[in-house]
Amino acid sequence: MNKVDTLIAETIEAEERAFLEELANEPGYFHQAFGMFRGSTGWVSWVMMIAQTLMFLAGVWMAVNFFAAGNSVDQLRWGLPAATILIIGGMLKMSLMPVMQANRVLRELRRLELAIAASKG
Prior knowledge:
Layout: H1 2-24, H2 29-35, H3 42-68, H4 72-94, H5 97-120
C-alpha cells in the first residue's frame, strides 16, 4: 500500500509541476484572444463576434453607397447609418477586451492559490 501512495504522490506532484509550468508562462495575445471562445461562456463571445462582423460588413456596404451617392440627401441616407453601425460594431469588438483581462486575473489567482497550497503542504 505504501508503494501505491508513493506513486500517487509522485503523479500528483508531476501534474502540479506541469500545471505550474503552464501557469508560469504567460500566453501570447492570440492564445488569449482565441481562449475567449472556449468554456461555458464561449458562445457569448461567438455571438458577439458574428454580430460585429455582420455590422462591419453592412457598414462597409453602406459606406461604399455613401461615396457613390450623387446628392447630399442620398449621402446622408447612407452615411449616417454607416457611421452608426461601424461605431456599434467597434464597441462590440472592444467589449471583448475586458473578458481577456478577466481571464488574465483568474489565471493569476489560480497561480496564487497553488502557491499558497504548496507552501502549506
